[in-house]
Write a structure and sequence with these properties.
Mean pLDDT: 86
Radius of gyration: 12 Å
Oligomer: single chain
Helix content: 55-70%
Number of strands: 0
Number of helices: 3
Largest sheet: none
Shape: globular
Length: about 80
């Protein structure tokens, strides 16, 4: 798997997690797995904390129609 394929997979998992939340069928295992993937992308140097935050905020806005608030951000440091 290339770096770009991994990042695409991370985004896909984030999209799936938010889609399930929108359908009121949240899956905690998927949510935590997605958080782990995003954390791994940061640790491998594929994304910065700001890039991860931007990806989450963009997908959150697209799927849930709400701005992702700072107080609910996952700590990635």
């Amino acid at each position: 798997m290339t770096n770009n394929e991994f990042l695409d997979y991370c985004k896909s998992e984030l999209t799936n997690s938010l889609h399930n939340t929108k359908l009121r069928k949240p899956d905690d295992k998927q949510k935590y797995r997605t958080e782990g993937l995003l954390h791994a992308a940061r640790l491998m140097g594929l994304m910065s904390v700001q890039q991860v935050s931007h990806m989450i905020a963009t997908e959150h806005q697209a799927f849930l129609g709400k701005v992702w608030s700072n107080d609910k951000r996952v700590r990635l440091h």
